[in-house]
Every structure is written in C-alpha cells, then in structure tokens.
Amino acid sequence: MDAVGVGLTIEDKVRFLSSSTIFGLPNEIVEVIETHMSWVFLVGDRAYKMKKPVRFPFLDFSTLAAREANCRAELALNRRLAPDVYLRVTPLTMNLSGALALDGEGDIVEWIVVMRRLPGEKMLDRMLAIGILQAADVDRLTDLFVQFYRRAPHPPTSPGDYFARLISEEAVNRDVLTRRPFEVDHGRVPAILGRMDNALEAHRELLEGRAAQGRLVDGHGDLKPEHICLEERVVIFDCLEFSAELRLVDPVDELAYLSVECALLGAQWLGLALFERVTPALESQTPHRLFHLHAARRAVLRAGLALAHLLDPVPRVPQKWEPLAGRYLTLAEQALDSLGAI
After folding, report:
1. Are 128 and 225 contacting, i.e. CB atoms less than 8 angstroms apart?
2. What is the CATH number of the domain that holds 59?
3. Which of 42, 67, 97, 337 lies at a 20 to 30 A Cα distance from 112?
4. % residues pLDDT > 70 (the chain)
5. Over 90: is that where the pLDDT of 4 sits?
C-alpha cells in the first residue's frame, strides 16, 4: 500500500467518484464502468479514469508513482489519435480531516485521467452492430490509418527478437488454453495451437523480414472497434500505454487485430477491406497471407486473454469468458483456413 492515504481503500475512491455532486452536477447520474485495470466514471460531458492498484506479469500499477506515470503516458500517447479527447491528468486529494476532493487541498492519494466524453452512438462497435456503417466512414478510417502509420515512429527492431516475442506469446497462449478446468473444446485446442505453431515457423522469414525492413511502428496496440469513434473527426482512443514493446507492431498485425474484433461483431468484411485499402498506401505490395497469419495469431491470443480473466482471484462476469474464448478459437480456425488456401 502507498504510504500516503494509508487506510484509504480502492472502494473508498470508487464510492467518492461515483457521486455526481463532486463534479458539480448534482442532478446527473454517474455511469460507473469497471475494466480489468481501471475504473471509468462517465458524467455530463466528461469521463474520469482511475487505475486499479494491480500487478500483472505485463504491468505494475501497485504504487501511486507508477499509476501517475501511467496516467501521464496515457495522456501523451492517446493525443496522437485523439488530441481533443484526452484533456489532463488531475490529482485526487485528501485533506487533514480525511475529506477527498478532485484537485483539492492536502495529500495526493490518486491520479485521474480526465477526458471528453464521446457519443456512444458513434462508436464503431455500435455502428457495426446495427449495420449503419457507410462507405464514407470506411474512407475516413482508411485516411486516418494511413496518416497515423506514415508518421508513427519506426523503432529499430531485431528481426530475431521480434520473432522470439511472437513465439513467446504463443507459448503463454498454449499454457492458458490447455488448462483442463476451462470449459473449452479440449479436442480442437491442440489442433489449433499446432496449426498456429506450424504457420509461424513456416512464415518466419516473412515475419523477420518485416522487422528487418523497418515495417514495425509504435502503434496503437489495442485497436478494437469500441476504441474508435466516428465523430466528424474520427478519433481512436484507449491505446496500450503501459508497454512500448507490446505497442511495437506491424500495421498489418494491427489491422488484422481490428479485423478479428469486427468479425466477432459479424462484420468480417471490414478488416480485410481496410487492409486492402491502407497497406497499398504504405508500401508497394503486402501479401494477404501475412494478414491472415496475424488474424489467426490475434484470435488465439484473444482466446487466451479471455480465459486468463478466470485466473483472477475474483473474476469479473465469470460466465462471459469461456464462451468468448470459444468464439475466438473459431475465428482462429477460419483465419488459418484462409491462410492455408493461399
């Protein structure tokens, strides 16, 4: 526990931020959303995000200093694609009498990212769910991706290290997906994992060549339809801010990830359409097999991450994760089939 605010629990902070009066909106209702690593509070035209004091193998938010650093990284990195959404980082304070306040007097006990609240009806996932995405919207997404990947930094990357990272991720997936207590089809899981291993090895030269050619960029890292808002100016938010290594991606990989998430919503067409529009503007020729390879890899990864939620001491919505993992495994099979057909 941090030395400042000893005795103050995460529940105390959530309770405080759940009251609309502290935001000067006593007649509003605060919508509270819990994620794996954060709490988000939606009220009026603002969203307030507070990190959980959690520690996982891939991140450590267990100290106040670490959470402040992450909040400031989130602000800076997300301003690349959502410059007018991420407004500031503000402290949650506690005075000598123990009263909490946003940016008040006393000791800082937490850090909060303040954002402009985005219109839910303009989120890509909702637009896909009700079938209202237009050709002009796809054009706008294409333009934004092309601009982003053209100006994104291309950190030098060892081809061998890049391939080793992909293999390491696959090993973690295998460890989680083959645990017998999970209610997934343990008959098809080994077959999918074996096909995935073979596909990675068969395309090692292609994958390492992408790193050698400087194709990897400091990307978004968590490109899902619920992170894309099709306002008049398209914004993409909630990037993966806690790991520069995981954010180091091939644009084809990132578009394949988006494709998998859109397919989960029944929009299988969108990811491939974006790949076929974006990549020609970035490079002369990109093989379709690279897209299908990354789509399969991402689907297997997402299946593993879904089941990993059930390893938490108190899983959120535990009934959600096993069926979701099964759906991702089906998408992995489909992508591997597409890869094999080329």
Report:
1. yes
2. 3.30.200
3. 97
4. 98
5. no
Residue 152: name the closest of 212, 220, 84 by CA. Answer: 220
Q: What is the mean pLDDT of residues 88-112?
A: 96
- Spatial separation of the C-alpha atoms in residues 121 and 139, rounded to whole Å: 19
* Amino acid 284: pLDDT: 81
pLDDT of residue 76: 98
30 and 158 belong to one structural domain: no
Identify the DSSP state of 123: B
pLDDT tens sequence across 169-228: 999 999 999 988 888 888 899 999 999 999 999 999 999 999 999 999 999 999 999 999
| Contact in structure between 269 and 277 (CB atoms under 8 Å) | no
Q: Which helix (H) or strand (E) holds 100?
A: strand 100-102
Give 20's strand partners.
Answer: none
Query: What span, in angstroms and rounded, lies between the C-alpha atoms of 246 and 236?
Result: 18
The residue type of 7 is G
Q: Provide the number of structural domains found in the chain.
A: 2
CATH number at residue 199: 3.90.1200
266-272 contacts: CB < 8 A, separation 24 or more?
266/128, 266/129, 267/128, 267/133, 270/128, 270/133, 270/138, 271/295
Query: Which residue range(s) make up the domain with 227?
Result: 124-341
The residue behind tokens 């030395």 is: 3
The predicted pLDDT at position 6 comes to 65
**Cα–Cα distance for residue pair 215/67, rounded to 1 Å:** 31
